[in-house]
Amino acid sequence: MRCLMTKPKILIVDDDADFRAPIKAILTSEGLLVNEAASAREMDAILNDFDADMVLLDVNLPDDSGLNIVSRLKQNRRIDVVMLSALGEVEHRVNGLTSGADYYLAKPVDIRELLAVINNRFQALTTHQPKQTHAWQLDTVNWLLITPDGEQHPLNNSELTILSLLAKQSMDDKATSREALYSALGNPNYSPESRSLDLHISRMRQRFSSDDFQFPIKTIRNVGYQLTKPIAIV
User: Are 211 and 165 in contact, with CB atoms under 8 Å apart?
Assistant: First the structure.
């Protein structure tokens, strides 16, 4: 979930178009940016370009279970999931929440309850705003890299892991070894010929650099990587 300096983005995932349409209309009228998907496959395609802050997810989709989708979303994204289901018994609610959902609402959804859930979540996020400075910042709460000009880049799990370790090592003006980075990424037994880490770093250089400044990282031959400027953890 990002620190909300822009309008929150909501993705409605439900195979019932008659359900999606009024929910989308109401949320849009409330000033939210809303997209919709009718299946898990369509959801995945949309999330490649639509960086949703929250997903309203139906439990029963034609191509996958909502319970499986929640686990998958939570592994790779900082995102809130509101489970929607006609099955409102306690057992079903518990299953939804234990699978990783942040909220569970029974259908038919009371729009007042849904708006309360959304408003409460996003109002809570605004209490943790990164300070505006002219330095690089890493917001580990909302999974953001903030550039010196204040632009916010949402991070995936791998990027957050790499940047957190680099930032901590840079406090002691030390390089971070490839071994340490691979271990933090959950691959301690990596092959010396592996270039997956280099690909991560290359993509980050491209994503976070601009005409005004370059992403502050350098390669240390036979060692690993080191930041050339500090990235403050906020």
Answer: no
Q: What is the rounded CA–CA span in Å between residue 9 and residue 11?
A: 7
108-117 per-position pLDDT tens digit: 888 888 888 8
Same-domain pairing of 96 and 160: no
Q: Do 189 and 224 sit in the same domain of this protein?
A: yes
Residues 48 and 148 in one domain: no
Summarised one tens digit per residue, pLDDT across range 82-99 is: 988 876 555 656 665 677
End position of a domain, from candidates 64, 87, 122: 122
Q: 106 and 49 in one domain?
A: yes
Structural domains in the chain (count)? 2
Overall pTM surpassing 0.85 (yes/no): no
Residue 13, φ and ψ in degrees, nearest 5: -120, 105
* Domain enclosing residue 198, as ranges: 137-233
Cβ neighbourhood burial of 181 (10 Å; 0-12, 13-18, 19+): buried
User: What's the pLDDT tens digit per position in 168-193?
Assistant: 888 777 889 989 998 888 877 777 77
> 45-59, 82-96, 132-146: which has the highest mean pLDDT?
45-59
Q: Is residue 2 part of a domain?
A: no
Residues 59/66, Cβ–Cβ less than 8 Å: yes
The rounded distance, in Å, linking the Cα atoms of 117 and 167 is: 34
Name the H helices within 53-210. 66-76, 90-98, 111-125, 157-170, 178-184, 196-208
